[in-house]
Amino acid sequence: MTLHYHQEYQCVKCETYFLPFQSPVTVCPECGEPNLQAEDYRDIVKLLVDANAAHRQMYGRCTPPAYGIFSLVDHYIYYTATLFDTFIEQQTPRALLIEEAVADESAAWKEHLRELLYQVFEEAERQGLFKPIAENASSAPDPGSGEGN
Q1: pTM of the model
Q2: Which residue range forms the structural domain that includes residue 73?
Q3: 18 lies in a domain?
């Protein structure tokens, strides 16, 4: 089962959908309006990494075999999953991968997405997401062993 989060956020001025990941204010990448970070988005970077880590444990990759996108957060989970898988499988340098991902965006969106992606990659590294799956699995208790109960 894939993880989904039914969260949406729109700019208070222009109603553009984006993730307000910076605390306490994220500037709208479309109109430049400062938006206060909503309580639901305080841990959005960690949530994106946690979802990708869960998918990697379940499917062997961050990108699940099938994934419906039902919200803005789902979109970013899938977006980061494809980047993480490329990073892991092709060992593409993180900076190059991020720059390629934002290359076709407007200047404001490039800045917004670049900062978000660097934060997500840093959190993923802190959590050990890029370690081989065997290493990740060995740190979790075996559900059938009774450990952790």
Answers
A1: 0.81
A2: 25-137
A3: no
